[in-house]
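Thread: "does anyone have the structure for this chain?"

Original post by V.I.:
We have the sequence but no experimental structure in hand. Need at least a predicted one for the grant figures.
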Amino acid sequence: MGFWKHILDCLLPPRCIACGTVLSGEQGLCPDCFNKIDFIGAPYCPRCGRPYENATQGLCGQCLKEKHPLFRMSRSAYRYTDASKPLILSFKFYDKTDNAPVLAQMMHRAGADIFKAGVDVIVPIPLHFSRLLKRRYNQSALLARCLGKLSGVKVNYTSVLRHRHTRPQVEFSGHARVKNVKDAFRVKHPERIKGKRILLIDDVMTTGSTLRECALVLKKAGAVSIDTLTVARVLD
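Reply from O.Q.:
Generated one for you, tokens below.
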């Protein structure tokens, strides 16, 4: 296998998923593009994952106000910026599905404490069937599949359905995002969710409205805990 892999690398060398530069290894990003990505690292809020400007260990002010938090932990690999945005857009809209393993590796590192705390099932945010037919793939499901292989955790693709068609969240802001995804999801197989620690997967967290709406139906179905893990996150 090593010999044939060497031949394949010579014919089709690995390239940077951002700029296309030929790489010496399989790291996914060339040094220049890697340095442009604003990865989210410690210190950050141990619950919501929002990075702190100064070193601290406690919950952020927003999390301290929540008496009954919906999520156990939320993590993202990097900030959604002008430099990192093309990685998401090319993967999501322009058929760069071969980027999924690289992005999932970033997510796996970012979510290390989630996996350490324990995850029973990985659930990708589902697409409505009409959008799935148009796009031909669910980017969150591709990320979930790669994360399942990296972590050894089972992926459930079918228990949560997006039964109501919604307009793209990018068209809305603020409370309109919440209204757009209201009652958009339902759990088809609650027996596969009840008593489980669920890890929700999506590509980008903006306001968190989609993740929260999906989490609500999972909670009603009996999920013990819900974590979220995304490639990128929009931060003020």
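V.I.: this helps a lot. The longest helix spans residues 139-151.
O.Q.: and The longest strand covers residues 197-205.
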